[in-house]
Amino acid sequence: MRIGLLLPKSSHESPSSSRPGTPCSFTSTAPTSLFPDTASDSGLSASELLGAPQTSPELESCASKQFPAPQATSPLILCPQKHILQPRPDTPKSAISPSEPTAPQPRPASPQPHPIPPQPRYGNPFGHVPSNAAQEWERRKRDEGEVNDVIDELMRYEGLEEVKQQFLDIKSKVDVCKNQRRDLKQERFNIIFQGNPGTGKTTIARLYAKFLHSVGVLKSKCIKETSGIKVASKGSMGIKRKIKNMLRYSGGGVLFIDEAYQLTAPYMDGTGRQALDIILASMENNIGKLVVIFVGYKDEMESFFEHNPGLASRIPYNMNFADFTDAELWKILYDNIHNQYKGNMKVERGMDGLYMRVVVRRLAQCRGSRGFGNARAVQNLLASISQRQAQRLRKEKTEGKNPDYLLFTKEDLIGPDPSRAAGQSAAWAELQKLIGLDSVKECAQSMIRMIQLNYHRELAERKPLKFSLNQLFVGAPGTGKTTVAKLYGQILADLGLLSRCDVVLKNPSDFIGECLGKSEAKTRKILEATVGKVLVIDEAYMLDAGDPNKEQDKFKTGVIDTLVAIVQGVPGEDRCIILVGYEDKISDMFHNVNPGLSRRFPIQRPFRFENFNLPQLQQIMQLKMHEQDIDCTPKALEVAGDVLERALMRPNFTNAGEVESCLATAKMNYEMRQSRKPFEDQAFDGMLEPEDFDRDFNRGSRTEIDCRKALNGLVHESIIEKLVSYQSRCLGARRHGLNPRDQVPTNFIFKGFPGTGKTTTAQHMGQIFYNMGFLSTPEVVECSATDLLGQYVGQTAPKTRKQLEKALGKVLFIDEAYRLIYGQYAAEAVDELIQFFGRPSHAGKMVVILAGYTADMNLLMSTRPVFSGLFPEEIVFENLRPEDCITLLLRELEHNQIVTESNFLRDSTSEGYLAVRRLFHAMQLVPSWSNARDVKYLAKQMLGKFLESMVQENQQARTLSLKQVTDCMMQVIMQRRDRCVKLGANDSVSLPLQPSLGGNDAGLIIAAPQQAPPPIASDSVICTPEAGANCFAGTDVSTDAGYSDGQRHTHQPMPSRARESIVDIQSNGPNIYHSQQQSGSHEAALRERGASDAEWSELQSAKVLEQTERQQHDARLKQLQRDLRVAEAAFATGNGDDIDRLTAKLDSIRDELSSIQKLMQDKEKVQQALQAMNRCVYGYCWTRVAGGYRCEGGMHFIANNEIRDRVC
User: What is the C-alpha to C-alpha distance for residues 557 and 595, in angstroms, rounded to an integer?
Assistant: First the structure.
């Protein structure tokens, strides 16, 4: 039921009217006039609603009582018993019921204790604005003799200035038409009423119907009232039948359609629009017989006007019902207080005093917003005042005081002082007791201070500072958002800012409808049901409609637009909406949706719910255990802290939810532990032990380092020792009360060649660091650099972020990390990695391993210096020695229960062992050597050969012969030989270069990702299978030839001049390998097939010349350095006469030193550029010859003009 309030003027003088009047006698002052917007559809005909009024027993009982003329009130009152409209005795009957002028039949009188006394005289504190329309009507009646009872009745109402003027304008048009003798049946008088509830639209609509009849526009007095939803539900045939009956039985009349915008609402599935088309057609076909009044809110009538372009011509009139002014609201409140309490209620500082003015100004803050209730809002306000008074009176009576039941105090009217109310609020005290949430408590305290500031500004009659009760709660799950939301609502209710303290929890799916238009209806229904309450929308970011530059989700857009339309977020609005979610996603939503949402919610100052830290989680654990009457040992509480600390690392950490889960696990384990005991030994005291929280709780405090056994034989001993040192640091830090995370690194670089154990070590790192308590799970997330890179602009960052978030609390192993140097999106991925690792919230929550070849990883770190700073710890994986390869091969064979004849692989002095070692050493010279990976492949091949021979020869013993072993190894060597690139004498290979790294790396020469460079060759003699095993006899293999300690440790690619020998693999001849002695010289061993004699001779001459120049430069450099030291010493001790000479000498020495150093630097740059071009597949150094540079193998040549552009 929609209720409207109308305040008519009287002809007598009143404090709020400047017009003089004569005293009159009347029954009593009436309460504020209320008009139900019911229609004939409710069961009452129009004549019954507008006809002869009924007199209530209350009026009859006081009919003989007369009072002096009081302030003007409404001509209509609401009977307290029956809620039906009643006329005032001093109001003309024609103004109420033109259809039934007979006098009302009195009801049996019932005794009333006291009549309502006249209103005392109070001046309206907000003043009074005279009605221009009323003055014009008085002039027209006086000067022109115009008469109209309906307009007389309209002019007695307060406000409605635009409506009054519109009535006069319509009457003027009718009078002009009559004077011109024009037929009024050709004129359209359809009209639209727009305004908020409580402004009298329904009552004025009835007056409009009577007015049209009074001026002769309509002959029929019939008025039919309905609503848009009823019309739409009955469909086009229903409204067609209704109009047909009006025309047939009453000759037409007025059709009143309330909330007409519902006809064009999307959720009506088109039925309302069809009915509207019928109405529009009937309006045109029955001009002069049928007038339609459409009523609705101004904003929502926009879709109504958009339905048909011809609406504006068919509906020529539009009346806007403005919200009541402060003066009118005060008058309504004053009348309500006076009539409800029969004139006995007093107000502190008077009815026109400060506190009443504050009350009215607070109410008026919502004026102009959609849904402002006007007179209805006044009624709700008075109900709140009465409720506060009742609470105060009950408290005073409990304290033994003698309260005044007929006094509204300051606190009853405007509520308590916020600072005092907060101190007395149980919800506020409970909020302060919550563990953690310091930022939330500070935000709540700031809000209280703001409310207190506005409270004092209102008392000083200054405008309050605007702020919204709506809030954003952002944070992870389990941080207390729902709990705080309930307390927040109760605090607002205690401060008098909300009429109710209920908390309603919703999620986005509750708002989204099944089809277009339903979302708006569901949202509106939820908002209307939560007035005066706290509405919490959890996971609110799911209402994000998507990128505004693309097609958005219309269902979610409808929800947000409805929120913006209904929620104003202004002081005085009796609602509080809290949006809950993750801060980044909430921010994205505000960026994508209706900008008006940002004005209604404080996006810049949300309530941030931070994750609980470990001490706070332990406090929560103890609190929950106390609530459940559970106890635990101190050690158990420490273990529970370790469990929660590991849980902190997980990406979806649920804070207090993790505490609940941890405690539930402990209770379950406790029950299982007790159930395994005999019944008489079972304890029921609820004392939890460490193993209840974590069955393997002592994994991090074991004296034995468990990674030795797990990794022994899989990786080099130096790697195992490194990992053991990390475990020792962790154990020592715990024993001395230090934080192990500050002592043990979590970001690593693994450098080394393929098959050296990088991946194997990484897979064990998960268990190692989990045992140390650094991770929430031993899981290892493996990916390559390619998995971090996108395929188009904007894809790389989210793809990288998703991979990193997936690995929180785990080990992230990024293989081939050197690929982050190349590609147009690599820099974006590196920037995202830097940003992610730099966040404090992610610090120490995961172990990150970057793996790749030594040279390439060094290049990556040199090109990304900021990135390099995040990975200070390096673990270098050496190439497996031949002895290690034999050990690994033996393990693989024994795993399949295969042994070698005479166990020659276990005897390091046997000829078979030495032969296999020599072959392994030869295999390592092949560029594609992959260490353990190739050893495992060899073992697989040997097993296959054994199985073949076992079937063919009916062999029973599981024994491999030396020939089978060497044949398999030679087969692999030949296979890898065939895969090498063979080039002619004048051929060259130009490998594609990787894309530039962009402007920041200008001038930097970056090599393509390289394959593992060939290890250093050693003295070796390798025979063909045809040569038999005799060729191995007496052969000495130097496995350490060419390996210095520093070189083995760093794994840098070595220049060819440092190699002792190289394998020359040939396809013909009995001997496919030539030792250094057979080749004749070291230089001959370096010569590549295809290099001509002339080119080789030129290269050797150039190398000799280059060596000579280098020696000369070195000698000169040493001499200059000695001269410089002598000159500096002489300069320090010399006298004034020698200063100039010594200074000149020092400058000369320094200039020559600088020139030599620059020359050497230039040569080094040239070598780097030449290596970057990857022309030589063996990675040889280059020597300057005529016209350019030639590799030390003699086969590859690069011209000067090719290298010049790269160096410049």
Answer: 12
- According to DSSP, residue 159 is labeled S
Domain count, the chain: 6
C-alpha dihedral (435, 438, 441, 447), degrees to nearest 10: -170
What is the per-residue pLDDT for 993?
A: 41
**pLDDT tens for residues 43-58?**
333 333 333 333 333 3
Could you tell me the two tokens for 1105? 């010349």
Q: How far does CA 1150 lie from the centroid of its chain?
A: 62
d(CA 734, CA 732): 5
**Helical residues (DSSP H) of 1-94, grouped into ranges:** 46-50, 57-61
Residue 732 lies in a domain: no
Say which DSSP state 576 is in. E
Residue with tokens 């209280």: 448
- Domain boundary residue, one of 591, 609, 627: 609
User: Do 682 and 773 reside in the same domain of the chain?
Assistant: no
Across 320-345, b (16+ Cβ under 10 Å) vs e yields: ebbbbbbbbbbbbbbbbbbbbbebeb
Q: How many CB atoms neighbour CB 34 within 10 A? A: 21
Q: With contact defined as beta carbons under 8 Å apart, do 76 and 85 qualify? A: yes
The Cα–Cα gap between 1184 and 1109 comes to 12
Residue 966 shares a structural domain with residue 1068 = yes
| pLDDT tens per residue, range 989-1028 | 444 444 433 333 433 333 334 444 444 443 333 333 333 3
Angle in degrees, CA 407, 409, 414, rounded to 5: 135
The answer to whether residue 806 sits within a structural domain is yes
* Domain edge (last residue) among 647, 664, 687: 687
Q: What is the mean pLDDT of residues 1093-1101?
A: 86
Report the distance separating Cα 448 and Cα 446, nearest Å. Answer: 5
Q: Are 472 and 365 within 8 A, CB to CB?
A: no
Q: How far apart are CA 620 and CA 616, in angstroms?
A: 6
Whether residue 376 is contained in a domain is answered as: no
Strand-strand pairing, 1182-1185 and 1188-1191: antiparallel
Asked if 968 contacts 917 with a C-beta cutoff of 8 angstroms, the reply is no
CA pair distance 169, 152, nearest whole angstrom: 15
What whole-number percentage of the chain has pLDDT above 70? 79
Same domain as 1159, residue 1025: no
Each residue of 679-729: pLDDT tens digit? 877 777 778 888 889 887 776 555 445 677 778 777 888 888 888 888 888
Cβ distance 850 to 817 under 8 Å?
A: yes
As a whole number of angstroms, the distance between CA 164 and CA 132 comes to 9
Q: In whole angstroms, give the CA distance from residue 106 to residue 1051.
A: 113
Question: Which residues have CB under 8 Å from 894's CB, separation 6+?
Answer: none
